[in-house]
Amino acid sequence: MKVEGSNPFASTKKAQESGFFHSSEEQKRTAFFIGVCLWFIKQMGKEIESMITLRNGVTAFLHNNGEYLLMKRADNRKIAPGVWSGVGGHMEQSEINDPLTACYREIEEETGISRDKISSLKLLYIITRRSKDEIRQSYIYFGETAQEEVIQTDEGNLFWIAEGAL
Q1: 82: Cα separation from own chain's centroid
Q2: What is the pTM of this model?
Q3: CATH of the domain at 126
Q4: Do 73 and 131 share a domain, yes or no?
Q5: Alpha-carbon gap, residue 27 to 3, rounded angstroms
Q6: Which of 73, 82, 96, 137 could connect to 156 by a Cys-Cys bridge, CB 3.0–4.6 Å?
Q7: Judging by DSSP bridges, how do beta strands 156-162 and 67-73 pair with one another?
Q8: Do 25 and 78 fall within a single domain?
Q9: 102 is in which domain, residue-wise?
């Protein structure tokens, strides 16, 4: 039942006419309870929305002739400074429903490897975790490339690492 406006009794007549309730008192109590619950949910939603941020990111691990492309993140990075990882980053607002496009963009930005030089880029994991006031959701992709040459960026240093060394 929908409570209209701020009056929790506004839809009482409709419910009564439908035969949903057996008595007027039961109807009033239920309508009031539903109205209070809806108000509470609305208020809590505002609180939760202001407290927690959802941050979506993508990470790619590219394979080439028995080696994986990894990045040793720069020490001055805000997230995971000095940590070894795949290549990736945050999704743009326009990419929220298309993490694959975000992954291709991040690969090219951080490595110089264009989309047409990557094959079999597949989503293998989605990792969700909470970090302070953020929920971080990461889409983890694995793919193949024949291109060995990469650019260096301020994000960190890129290295081809043999599978056996991992």
Answers
A1: 23
A2: 0.69
A3: 3.90.79.10
A4: yes
A5: 13
A6: 73
A7: antiparallel
A8: no
A9: 53-165
